[in-house]
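Deliverable D2.4 — example input (structure tokens):
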């Protein structure tokens, strides 16, 4: 492979501050966070009982897109560049779907008082009801997944744009 062909298969830098290799590493980390956060979702009773599958699949797709980007940066090749573009566009579409589902899930989490205190006043202002604590934990976990998803959408969008521009110029 000639040096001209090798440099032509790299992702294009969109601006001076955009480094595709760093973006790929951060994308891989965001995907790993999504995979790790699917475990607590497994044990929370919620309005969408199979929601724990979404961060698992999304995390795997995000890690795959970031890995293909990193592989293309290390060993530039046209097929890797195409895989990088497909992986990042697929990750972007799945992240958009996850964004909608996370927003829906946040809107359906019950925030009203789920239980009242017992006759001895055990559940007073210092001790919340266990179901309220679980609902707050579920809300916080879903919000964290939503924030990681938004960051992944931004990075997948930038990496997709960079890969598609590189494919167009080759």
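Example output (designed residues):
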């Amino acid at each position: 492979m000639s040096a001209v062909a090798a440099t032509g298969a790299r992702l294009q830098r969109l601006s001076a501050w955009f480094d595709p290799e760093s973006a790929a590493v951060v994308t891989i980390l965001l995907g790993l966070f999504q995979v790790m956060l699917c475990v607590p979702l497994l044990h929370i009773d919620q309005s969408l009982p199979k929601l724990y599958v979404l961060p698992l699949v999304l995390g795997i797709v995000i890690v795959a897109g970031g890995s293909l980007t990193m592989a293309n940066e290390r060993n530039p090749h046209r097929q890797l560049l195409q895989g990088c573009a497909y992986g990042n566009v697929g990750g972007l579409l799945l992240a958009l779907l996850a964004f909608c589902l996370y927003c829906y899930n946040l809107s359906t989490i019950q925030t009203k008082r789920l239980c009242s205190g017992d006759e001895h006043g055990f559940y007073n202002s210092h001790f919340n009801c266990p179901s309220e604590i679980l609902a707050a934990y579920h809300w916080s976990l879903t919000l964290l997944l939503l924030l990681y998803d938004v960051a992944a959408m931004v990075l997948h969008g930038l990496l997709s744009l960079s890969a598609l521009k590189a494919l167009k110029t080759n």
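The CA atoms of residues 93 and 153 lie 8 Å apart.
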